[in-house]
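agent> fetching stored inputs for the 5'-O-[(L-methionyl)-sulphamoyl]adenosine docking request
agent> found them:
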Amino acid sequence: MGEGKPFFITTPIYYVNDRPHIGHAYTTLACDVLARFKRLEGFNVRFLTGTDEHGQKVEKSARAAGLAPGDFTDQVSQNFRDLAKTMGFSNDDFIRTTERRHILACQALWNELVQRDQIYLGRYAGWYSVRDEAFWGEDELSMGPDGGRLAPTGAAVEWVEEPSYFFRLSRWQEPLLRLYEARPDFIAPDSRRNEVISFVRMGLSDLSVSRTTFTWGVPVPGDAGHVMYVWLDALANYLTALGYPETGGVFARHWPADLHMVGKDIVRFHAVYWPAFLLAAGLAPPRRVFAHGWWTNEGQKISKSVGNVIDPLALVERYGLDPVRYFLLREVPFGNDGDFSHRVLVNRMNGELANEFGNLAQRTLSLIERQCAGRVPEPGDFLPEDETLLTAAHGLLERVRPVLDRQAFHEALDILWSVVRGSNGYIDRQAPWALRKTNPARMATVLYVLAETLRHLGLLMLPFVPGSAGRLLDQLAIAPAARTFAAVGPAGALSAGTPLPKPHGIFPRFTV
Ligand code: MSP
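agent> prediction call returned; pasting tokens
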């Protein structure tokens, strides 16, 4: 595993001011599927997630909870680790920005920027939103109902005036525009790319990168009155996790990141500030930033004050993990906003997972159990209709790979379902149950073709629904070593005569 081509994928690190909700689960799930897929392809994957624990917002929440910030972040960060466990996430590391390795990495990055004359001391006078942890320009604000100014995100802003170190962001306007131009895939989807390009074209001012009015942050080296701006601190996590400031070994192998997955609200930080910091420090920018959309809940914006926050743990408890994973990636074209609805989830769970896929597996495996003495049947010559289905199954990987390389999860599932539906049509037309008496050799061939197709569906579904796909592969007696994409195609075909365990359903129906 350690030898393959490197692949480094990251989630945003989550603010610990809050309990995990569906938005957090969604971003990490998308990364989890890609990480699993790449591992099955033989890549040397590093999949990073974690928690963003500094800054005014977290400090404020700690105070509201009556706790010291360190105790508060210990508690809330644990909720995110628990979420990762419940959702079956396969991250290789979980970073907390309060860890020593991170504080050292941030300070090293800072020193590098200072040495390269990218940071200078000045004074900030402008607007800041604690909720967004962002500085906003006067021209970006609107007037709120009570006369206060609002950021484009709807968050209140406050006037801040304090000594501050600045990063020379203005110098990076042209290099950034050249980067976007030279690498059309750097920001996706296109709508976000256009948004970023027009923002940068409007001109970039130097960015305030330190604060003096609170202390919950990484101390600025050599100036104890300042803590680093939480976004500089947070973004640096992607370097910390690879061992920065050590730039050999893991770092050399895995940097630049292949993909930073983010929500659409934080694309500016990842596609403007972050590559500028990196270029300024003499480091390569990431290869790609993908910004996904936001979920609403039954048509309504999700917010704590409305009280309609969706708890992913409750969903998993109610529907089971794999149906939730499937629904989140199937329902909405990745990149678009989407609406969460229990009714639609249940429809997909019962219609697509239980009826279409689950029944196909159940029908095939129970016929093999009853009619073939529970062993993989011996196929005869394949007819054209057998070849059609097998070719579709063998071709799945080649079709799904490019689609996932552009993070189009819904399209990947569509492709898989074309073979699920193709198999259902095939089983109905071939009617193997009726062949037992008339042509048992043909029955064996048909069941073999179906089992081989299920093997491919099981392998390709592993990244999306690892538990259920794993159970399907168990029922086909696929050894752990054969659960890789190297086994796709005729080379990994089932051998006739292999005894199979007793079949049982893989996708239960949801009934109230
Ligand atoms: N701490 C920063 C990220 C720093 S990365 C160096 C942060 N954290 S967050 O906890 O507020 O948000 C994390 C992610 O959750 C974002 O990508 C955001 O888009 C996502 N979501 C928050 N609410 C969401 C929905 N309702 N729907 C989908 N994703 C949403 O930002």
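agent> quick read of the result: Residues 342-492 form a domain with the Isoleucyl-tRNA Synthetase; Domain 1 fold (CATH 1.10.730.10).
agent> awaiting further instructions
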